[in-house]
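A note from the maintainers: we've had questions about how concatenated examples are separated. There is no special marker in the raw files; a new sequence line simply starts the next protein. For clarity in this README we add a label.
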Amino acid sequence: MKVVFMGTPDFSVGTLEAIIAAGHEVAGVVTQPDRPKGRGKAMQYTPVKTAAIAADIPVYQPIKVREPEFVELLRQLKPDVIVVVAFGQIIPASILEIPAFGCLNVHASLLPKYRGAAPIQWAVIDGEKESGVTIMRMDAGLDTGDMLAKTVIPLQENETGGSLFDKLSKAGAGLLVDTLDRLEQGEITPEKQPADSPNAYARMIRKTDGRIDWHMEAKNIERLIRGLNPWPSAYTILNQKTLKIWKASVLDVETGKEPGMVTDAGKSGIFVQTGKGVLRLEEVQLEGKKRMSCDAFLRGFQLPVDTRLQ
């Protein structure tokens, strides 16, 4: 097939590379404009742009894909299919109608669950037992198009947002290539989605979502920590400094202390009372310091019992 690929972050790269490896003709890659990054504010390519340049594929970076000039450019490329993977802009009807096989989206959830921008993190935060990838033919709605293929990925007990990201990126790449082949052979019957999703919209994650509310149950805080690892990370405030929490475990005990109070601190971890149960912190990172085990952290930091984390 003749493909136009639209994507931006690391999650998208595996699918682009799989399409190329499968022998499809990639007529062009569309990605978000370069952005300044770091203290020097140097312009940085998106991961997809870097991969496209390495494969000697033309790259297009429109500020808005709905601009008539860009829509006409896509028409001139005459793609059989447009593949969209975490692109970052809403695709208008003027583009959806261009390719004969439609615009296919690699969505990192088992639709209709977790429609929206951050299905990976929310699946971990919500304690789902499984996630997966859905290949969807896009329509004018938000992740509401007909489903063409699915694959299921079980979540491990220690699953993080980062580890699930990697699994779904790999699974999505393989599923998309298989879907293209089956579409071309006429072997797929699209399945319509129900009108309503079983979950609330999986909205975009904000840095402030990582601020821990110690009145929550320990099990919910532990899932938040895993879901927001590696970005933006869960955190609390210790002595007016940000303390990121990278790893924790749940103890089904009660101490009678107020939520957020440190109940013990030693080689086995930092123990904090929550709204229900105790959370044992195992890996932390104090503002301006490196990530380390709590044992190592406590060698250089005094943390008395009844210290309050906020």
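[label: protein 2]
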Amino acid sequence: MTAYLITSVSVVGAAPTDLLIRDGVVAEVGPGLSAPDATVVDGTGLVALPGLVDLHTHLREPGREDAETVESGSRAAALGGYTAVCAMANTSPVADTAGVVEQVWRLGREAGLVDVQPIGAVTVGLAGERLAELGAMADSAARVRIFSDDGYCVADPKLMRRALEYVKAFDGIIAQHAEEPRLTEGAQMHEGEVSTRLGLIGWPAVAEEAIIARDVLLTEHVGGRLHVCHVSTAGSVEVLRQAKARGVRVTAEVTPHHLLLTDERATTYDPVFKVNPPLRTAADIAALRTALADGVLDVIATDHAPHAVEDKECEWAYARPGMLGLETALSIALDVLGPQWDLIAERMSRTPARIAGLTGHGVDPAPGVPANLTLVDPAARRTIEPAELASRSRNTPYARMTLPGRIVATFLRGEPTVLDGKAVK
């Protein structure tokens, strides 16, 4: 295993120092380090962060390898500064059995670019009718701890209660896609002034807020653990704020696109801006940013959702919802938050790693810890060109936008997966 000496790098925004990586761990930290056998990486002007962790990634394999594979998604993640991603269950077949989650887990290990942690389905086939094999998935080699029907809401309150109760046995988490389906039937975008002007059926904010409020009460009642996916409205923030004040065991995530893009983007009828939950208003964005800063929203999660060309380059009504996110998330965080490195590390690495139970991830570079880290050039700016992305899909909403920050290197247990901004393999 090659040793690496990273010189004059700022660790989470602190004064420049040197990092020596040897045998998969950070061996030494301090100024003026020397290691003749080590490969030197010039860290001047760079910031070292704990490797990013994504709680919400769609890798599409098995079933839709035309849109993404575990390997291509892992490469996109590494280029985005990630060392671990949690892969959602809405594959084909659905990851609702021990066999499927183990398949995804093994594909991640074979790719060797990031740690791929499968998320299991809550219900069989994501149908919302009966619980999947939660215990078997938890006991599998993949050791699943988060379960979600993401893409669909667990709408039946009795089933949701049973799921929250069941996973308590192994301290599991139910991650909810909060959408009351009876309020969003036929919906095409956020319900508001823009949808009225465009003549598109609206997706009302209350459809999200009502499910979060219900699930918070269920979680409080059974003493379980709830994680709310892709929070998008100001009302949802207030429900979560009150729940946390009462001590409910609930965490929540926000996506980069919900922190930056508004429903006005739909006026172009470009399906790249169609996403679920939909892009909301400027007032919602302001509330989400405040909640992210004060901790009501715990995590920035990408909801990386690759789609094949035929599923996006079509009429708005027929387009699949979803956007790419892995290779641009840190840049959006920098754009939204500025160089608040400790806050970025907390929301994009430490907290998601803690929620997912990923030992060795989300730990700041220090002597003796696994060398899972990323090096960022905060002074760089880059223009996003879809054809240059590592994903098999091209549905990025940031095409030809110039964004701050560039991932220079990513290390997974001391081995580089990205160097000089390029994938190593």
